[in-house]
Amino acid sequence: MPFQRFLVSLLGIILLINLTGCDAQEESETVDALLQQEEKPLPLWLDGEVDMTPQVWLVERSIAEVSDKEAEVQRTAELLLVAADRFGESHRMIANRSAQLEDMLQEQHYNETAVDLLAWFVDLPSTKSPHSYSALCQYYYNLRTKGLEKLAIQDSLLTM
C-alpha cells in the first residue's frame, strides 16, 4: 500500500509538471508570435491585402517623429476624408501617393512628411482646372526638385 501511494503521488507530480510545462510552452509560443508580429515590416504599398487603415499605415510608415500617435492618426483620417472628397480618389490611393511623394522627396534630400504634404494639398486653393491628387503630387515633386519653395509651387499650381 505505501508503494501504491508513492506511485500515485509520483504520477500526480509528473502530471502537475507536464501541465505547468504546457502553460509555459503556450505562453512562450504566444510571446514568440507577438514578437514576430511586431517585427513584421510595414508594406511599401497599401493594397487590398494589408490589414490596416490608410491613416494608421500612413502615420506608421512616415518619417515624422510623432509624440501623440493617436492624435496624428485622427488628424490623418480627417485629412484623408477631405482629400478623397475633393480629389475623387480613394483613401488608399491618396495614402499611397502621399507616401510615394515623401519617399521621392527623401531621395532628393527634402524632408517633408507624407501627412504634412497631404495637409498642404488639402489646404491648397482650387486650381483653374481640376487635377487628380496623383497629378498634383507629380507636379509638386517636379517643381520642388527644381528648387521652388512651397509658396512658389502653390502659385504655379493655381495657374494650371
From TrEMBL:
<protein>
    <recommendedName>
        <fullName>MxaH protein</fullName>
    </recommendedName>
</protein>
<keyword id="KW-0732">Signal</keyword>
<feature type="signal peptide">
    <location>
        <begin position="1"/>
        <end position="24"/>
    </location>
</feature>
